[in-house]
Amino acid sequence: MTIDSEWDNILGIRTTGRDDSIADLVRFPYEPTDYCVLERLANSGYFTKRNTLLDYGCGKGRVDFFLAYQTKCRAIGIEYNERLFARAKQNKQQAVAGGRVAFTLIDAADYTVPAEVDRVFFFNPFSVEILRLVMEHLAASYEQTPREILLFFYYPSAYYCDYLAAEERLIPVETIPCGDLFKESDGREEVLVYKFLV
Fold first, then answer.
1. Per 3-state DSSP, what percentage of the chain is helix, strand, and coil (rounded to 5)?
2. Residues 112, 133, 172, 104: is their CA dihedral positive or negative?
3. Which of 131, 145, 59, 40 lies closest to 101, judged by CA?
4. What are phi and psi of 113, to 5 degrees?
5. What is the pLDDT of residue 1?
6. Which residue pairs from 157-166 have beta carbons closer than 8 angstroms and sit at least 24 positions apart in sequence?
7. Domain 1-12+34-146: assigned CATH number
8. Which of 66, 68, 103, 143 is the most buried (most CB within 10 A)?
């Protein structure tokens, strides 16, 4: 049994397996974040029971269930793929931390960010063009309810890195290295942490 399967069993969910059934040039395939990376993120100190996580492109909900279980934060997963959304909802019914997690079927470009969200996770769910629209929604939410908002970018693409470096509303906080967690590393196994400012 793999570590991913073991954690799925502990959490009472099924999240393994890649899904690119309706991926295209702007919305990318579902690939679950490795649990070893999520363990490092959970131990980073950035998540507590007072935080609410927004997970863009949540897929089957792994990030949400794990962090809700480990840190007691609340989590909101949004997903545009109806099949993945259905799997996330099915997982929620039996998940250990299901009561702390909610899911919404919606395109990220159309999602209004709730005032309680103060942590945001991305694992390259969509193109930079959609990311720009997401940033506008985050800015609108921040302007309506000023608060600390931290953004977490796992395994960022070169396009994401270029955008993040040029985005004046973001300031870098930390890079959480994760390359040591894998037998082979290409240098992208890291979580970039940014603070949102307007």
1. 40, 20, 40
2. positive
3. 59
4. -75, 120
5. 54
6. 157/124, 157/188, 159/127, 159/128, 160/122, 160/124, 160/128, 160/131, 161/192, 162/128, 163/128, 163/131, 163/132, 164/192, 164/194
7. 3.40.50.150
8. 66
pLDDT-derived band at 19 (thresholds 50, 70, 90) equals low
Amino acid 191: pLDDT: 97
Cα(191)–Cα(198) distance, integer angstroms: 22
pTM for the full model?
Answer: 0.94
Closest CA to 147 of 170, 172, 116, 169: 116
**What one-letter code names the amino acid at 4?**
D
Tell me the C-alpha distance between 43 and 23, whole Å: 32
Beta carbons within 10 angstroms of residue 25's beta carbon: 8
Torsion 58-91-117-139 (CA) sign: positive
Which residue ranges make up each domain of the chain? 1-12+34-146
Instruction: Note the pLDDT tens digit of each residue in 169-198.
Output: 999 999 999 999 988 877 789 999 999 986
Query: What three-state secondary structure class fits 104?
Result: strand
Tokens of 62: 């792994």
